[in-house]
Amino acid sequence: MAGVFAYESSEVDWCEDNYRHSETVVEYFNTMSSFIFFVVSPIMLYLLHPYAKERNLAVHLVWLMMIFVGLFSMYFHMTLSFMGQMLDELSILWVLATGYSLWFPRKHFPAFIKDRNSFSRMVLAVTVVTTLSSFVKPTANAYVLNCFALHILYSLCVEMRSCTDQRVLRLAKVSIGLWVLAISCWISDRFGCSFWQKLNFCYLHGIWHILIVVATAHGSTLIAYLDASFEIPYSLPDLQYWPKDSWALGLPYIVLKGTTKTRKGC
Description:
Largest sheet: 2 strands, antiparallel
Order of helices and strands: HHHHHHHHHHEE
Distance between the termini: 60 Å
Strand order of the largest sheet: 1-2
Strand content: under 5%
Radius of gyration: 20 Å
Number of strands: 2
Helix content: 55-70%
């Protein structure tokens, strides 16, 4: 049992040179880059609170769990232990499951699903089975997670077909662009390591950490906005950017220009 906690007990080893900058941290840059989770997550929790309070406080679970993704990512890259790998990958799985349960459009539910509670129970069952299956072939876990991400991307593209709001379309393009950059770094680090070693630049997985957190901030805000427009239209949701709305770069969030008082009664 102790072996699963041992340094380098995982079969996964990223391109960064091991122990290059520290005798106790296996992949130093990959470990340090995980701090981005602890920076962005609290900001997003704060920015999305008005939406979460009106829609469902469970929305906060997404970014609370992202903090644990960052913690387990640091532990994994610091040790490259099997336990670190599983905690890292399974925390990502449960973040995706939470997002599915909260935001997957009702109009795309399977025919046998009648409401969101039933859909959430189905997602829970699938996630539990996937969690147990992840121990069968751990090296395949990352690819399964990226397949889930591709499905989310496809669903988002379907939703955006009928959108004409340029501000929303811009957010969609930025979200997809960031994800493409992030996954390109992940793939290049995984399969093009020898090339990057020749250039003495083995930090693409760390850059993936940074890009994927920013992409998640953009993508989850976009999905939440679409959800708010459909589920709580009386709140008049709109998009803004932190720290300043006029800046080209920033973290997107939802503002509610309406109030519960505008909800129509029976």
